[in-house]
Amino acid sequence: MIETPPLVDQHCHGVLRTELGLAGFEAQLIRSAGPPAAGTTFFDTQTGFAVRRWCPPLLGLEPHCPPAHYLARRRELGAAESGRRLLRGSGVGVFLVDTGDVGAPGHDGHPGHPGHHGDGGDVCGPGELALAGRARAHEVVRLEMLAEQAADTSGTVAAFLANLAGAVHHAAAHAVAFSFGAAMADGTGYAQALLRAAEPPGPGEVRGAADRWIAGRARGGAVHDPVLLRHLLWSAVSSGLPIQLHTGTAPPEALTGFVRATAGLGAYVVLLGGYPHHRHAARLAAAYPHVHADLGPVLARTGARAGAVLAELLELAPFGKLLYSSGARRLPELHATGALVFREALGRVLGGWVTDGAWSWRDAHRVAGMIAAGNARRVYRLDERD
Amino acid sequence: MIETPPLVDQHCHGVLRTELGLAGFEAQLIRSAGPPAAGTTFFDTQTGFAVRRWCPPLLGLEPHCPPAHYLARRRELGAAESGRRLLRGSGVGVFLVDTGDVGAPGHDGHPGHPGHHGDGGDVCGPGELALAGRARAHEVVRLEMLAEQAADTSGTVAAFLANLAGAVHHAAAHAVAFSFGAAMADGTGYAQALLRAAEPPGPGEVRGAADRWIAGRARGGAVHDPVLLRHLLWSAVSSGLPIQLHTGTAPPEALTGFVRATAGLGAYVVLLGGYPHHRHAARLAAAYPHVHADLGPVLARTGARAGAVLAELLELAPFGKLLYSSGARRLPELHATGALVFREALGRVLGGWVTDGAWSWRDAHRVAGMIAAGNARRVYRLDERD
Amino acid sequence: MIETPPLVDQHCHGVLRTELGLAGFEAQLIRSAGPPAAGTTFFDTQTGFAVRRWCPPLLGLEPHCPPAHYLARRRELGAAESGRRLLRGSGVGVFLVDTGDVGAPGHDGHPGHPGHHGDGGDVCGPGELALAGRARAHEVVRLEMLAEQAADTSGTVAAFLANLAGAVHHAAAHAVAFSFGAAMADGTGYAQALLRAAEPPGPGEVRGAADRWIAGRARGGAVHDPVLLRHLLWSAVSSGLPIQLHTGTAPPEALTGFVRATAGLGAYVVLLGGYPHHRHAARLAAAYPHVHADLGPVLARTGARAGAVLAELLELAPFGKLLYSSGARRLPELHATGALVFREALGRVLGGWVTDGAWSWRDAHRVAGMIAAGNARRVYRLDERD
Q: pLDDT tens track of chain B, all 386 residues?
């Protein structure tokens, strides 16, 4: 067996504080524009089967028990106690929590309940997650949220730009990373925006775009203007904090310009997601010193196939450039399933290579520790923070 | 062992009634723009090896016997008797037969011998296939064929459009699905056409395009005009019948617009082919309720690798959204090989997950039944038809 | 065990004659725009692990020994003796040597030390490689190098074009193949250039481009003009010699036009690289008689995953269309690792299919011989040359 240290989950969200029925639970499992096929449920997916494999034992049930049994047991224990058991059972030592929750599955592009900083929303913040999971937690700040908050609180374009700059500066001092692109990553315009992101917009361009956006915006309105998005991204680059970049369904070529332009500027770029283009993300991580690839939610989403996907990432990605995350949001089941699927897949893949003689035992252990925690500890300077 | 019910082969073609020599047989195995490499034959492919594995035993020979032995035995039995043994040995209970055969391998884009409705061509129709295979069969109507037939029999543009509308309406009443794109799917213009397919063309646009096409067309001429193709596709959407969409080599992004535009309109879309972009097809099936993915000819084409490709599709595709097909045409060997490769691969992949503890036995059985037959029975309403 | 004949390494480069320290060695392992992640080295990659697995035993050490031990032993033996042991241990019988070395890793796009024809540079030529490896060697001529040499030695545009034509003609008589695209393959403009390569430029266009290039060029300057590049490529097509085309990171669609346009013209096209688009390369090799796919450096680059990548290529590529190469340059360790990884992966993949009953033993042996050597012997007419 390959053993790993307590994991760093380098990108996740808070969990719901509220109790969930079967339908409410199921709706959080999968991102879909509508209902499942007739006669099936969202449990009839690799994610559903993986949740049913790994979570029931953490609540004292048999693996693969029927969803209704599981939900009944979950209600019996209560959301808080179930959450504690699941998070503590995940083997995660540090959660990096994106506090800009962009909404429930099925509502891509529409901001949901932010619930950041434990503000009373129904999604808990980093502190509460740490307590529940008996772990540490640090905040990842969603860049678009800073723009929306600055717009909500600024009377003029000049004030907006100054407040935004202040917010980025402030976040850079207390957060461990910025995240970017979550709400747009599956939209058709995102790839276009990334393609133009190879250089920052000029100051006049930014003022013009801010002017138009603020004039036409209702309170809480999301930022979609491509000039403002590029301005946000490049503000983050200047701050020096690592940037977690959602790659969504953008073709990998769309990333090349930004990645080249930011080489040597001092900020790490961590590519989130990217499946089924994950091999491209691994290739970029090999070619550019500042680029890292995220194992991400694809492991929990592909369940029984997680080892195969992990192995594909391990083809080209240097072992110092891959980072574990769950991408989990709202259901602590997803935090736990991500972590347990990852450990099992990592052990199976690296252990297999040791058995074949392709890798040494010592090397496999060292690489497992790097992917599970060491790389994230270095990228996010966690040893300086804990 | 994972057992499956009798399969529904949701997309195949009729078989040749004529006897074949070695060269004629080989020419039907693979689609290629020319001859195989010197010193090799088209049997030196995964398809060739898979046919040699699975078909000889159905005719009383050893697996992997030399092609010449196999062909000699096939001639000895005769095309009809060989066809019966192969089709009955496939374990298929229902064939959905595309009656618009777009030609032999190597002649992409040029219409071949339609042979539909048992019209005396050398390719048999659904009824004859059902009889030979001791199975049921239903017709899948190729949309482009309706346009070509309407053009052949109409004197004016107005008559053409009216006849086409009537033909679509008539087909929707007796066929189980429409198919679209077979002849074009590997052409460079197809991706462009799909990209523009996110909305139907206007009536004036359609009349203009029909006018130009009919004026310049020789009898039997194929439809390539992008406006008419979009009109065909959207006529099918309006009919409510499922649409089998050949994805060919179009990049998956080309499909997104059409898929989004047709969500919620009531017609299922079944993506045919797509390898090596099959993971994208699975992702679309996960994201959109009306989208389904086809296992398709890739299983027989990749032979010993069919399990690996099937497993990739099973990463993201909801289990209620994958459908078996052979994509076979002309050679009953391809119908049989597709089915036997599929069963073996499905058993190996799902059985492996059960052995690993990732899936329960009960779940694996249920999912196998869904992919083998249940999903197709639901999508094509086969229980109402049998 | 599947046995293979002595390999033909159909695309590699010469090896360095100079001794290397640990840092110098490591810098040749991986192509990267900068240093490895903090706390890691370029050995922390699949390539590094594969080199540590396969090379130490050839120098009398244990597999997986620490890099510093390996380098000490290498220095003890000397670069020449180490090179002999590594090359002879590779099991390669024929090296096809690209004499246009486009530079060390990390310097893409900048011409390095050409070192061709044993001209006293630090990289050895084919003759020396043959002697060291107790093998045969033939030259592959880089097309761009011919243009640069012609420009260095011509006073006028007319002389340049005549000298270039002469050089292509001369190379076609003594070399086994042309290579194209190495320096550009990862550049953003390469895909664009390939897209336009579906037809040769006109003579006036070529003269104009040559005029501009030569006027603005310093001695030794590289050719980047898209018209001249197309002219080079089509000059090679006319010569009838096989063309090794670096596919780099160009999307596979970029290749389709050129491949279609050159079908039936008599010159073979061998697609080099292409990972992670290698399945597309295999598909093109299936669809077009003159197209071949290269296993290439991806095997040594993916190390423990080489079998998985090889298996993906074997899905669609006809078995007469796949060719082994190492893509190795400068380090004889890369020539040896490529060959040993390939043999092991081929034996594992084909042997597994035999064990499963999917392939016969006899077929597996025949296919192994084709990929290892037979296909390359045919494409490059080696039996007429040896």
A: 788 999 999 999 999 999 999 999 999 998 888 999 999 999 999 999 999 999 999 999 999 999 999 999 999 999 999 999 999 999 999 999 999 865 533 333 333 333 333 333 599 999 999 999 999 999 999 999 999 999 999 989 999 999 999 999 999 999 999 999 877 666 656 766 777 788 999 999 999 999 999 999 988 888 888 899 999 999 999 999 999 999 877 777 778 889 999 999 999 999 998 899 999 999 999 999 999 999 988 898 999 999 999 999 999 999 999 999 999 999 999 999 999 999 999 999 999 999 999 999 999 999 999 999 999 999 999 999 86
pLDDT tens per residue across span B116-138: 333 335 999 999 999 999 999 99
CB C236 within 8 A of CB C171: no
Contact between residue B286 and residue B316 where contact means Cβ atoms under 8 Å apart? yes
Distance from the Cα of B264 to chain A's closest Cα (Å) equals 9
Task: Tell me if residue C190 falls in helix, strand or coil.
Answer: helix
Largest CA distance in chain A: 66
Nearest to C329 by CA among C297, C289, C288: C297
The residues facing A272 across adjacent strands are A246
Q: Confirm whether pTM is higher than 0.80.
A: yes
- Chains with at least 3 CB pairs less than 8 angstroms from chain A: B, C
Q: How far is CA A298 from CA A53, A54, A272, A303, B38, in A?
A: 17, 16, 10, 8, 44
Whole-number Å distance between alpha carbons of C298 and C342 = 10
Distance from CA of C50 to the nearest CA of A (A): 7
What is the Cα–Cα distance from C84 to C88, expressed in whole angstroms?
Answer: 6
Retrieve residue C55's tokens: 């090379």
Measured N-to-C along each axis, helices A203-215 and A157-174 cross at an angle, to the nearest 10 degrees, of 110
Output DSSP code: residue A324.
-
What structural domains does chain A harbor? Answer: 7-384 (3.20.20.140)
Tokens of A313: 């990432």
**Is B45 close to C287, i.e. CB distance below 8 A?**
no
Residue with tokens 């003009």: C225
Q: Where are the alpha helices (DSSP H) in chain B?
A: 22-27, 46-58, 67-77, 79-88, 126-133, 143-153, 157-174, 188-195, 203-216, 226-239, 253-262, 278-287, 298-302, 306-316, 332-355, 361-369, 375-379, 382-385
- Chain A residue numbers with beta carbons less than 8 Å from the beta carbon of C40 are 318-320, 370
How far is the C-alpha of B366 from the C-alpha of B369, rounded, in Å?
A: 5
In chain C, residues with a C-beta closer than 8 Å to the C-beta of A283 are 249, 276
What are the residue ranges of helices labelled H in B35-120? 46-58, 67-77, 79-88
d(CA C141, CA C167): 10
Distance (Å, whole) CA C68 – CA C40:
14
Instruction: State the Cα–Cα distance between residues A205 and A229, nearest whole angstrom.
Output: 12
Half-sphere exposure for A76 (CA within 13 Å, toward CB): 9
Fill in the amino acid letter for C188. Answer: T
Cβ–Cβ < 8 Å for C277, C308: no
The ipTM of this complex is 0.93
Q: Do C358 and B302 touch (CB under 8 A)?
A: no
Nearest residue in A to B284, CA atom: A32
Closest Cα to residue B181, out of B126, B222, B138?
B222
Angle, alpha carbons C35-C40-C41 (nearest 5°)? 60
Neighbours of C4 (CB within 10 A): 22
B90-113 per-position pLDDT tens digit: 999 999 999 986 553 333 333 333
C369: enclosing H helix or E strand: helix C361-369
Which residues 6+ apart lie within 8 Å of C61 measured at CB? Answer: C69, C70, C73
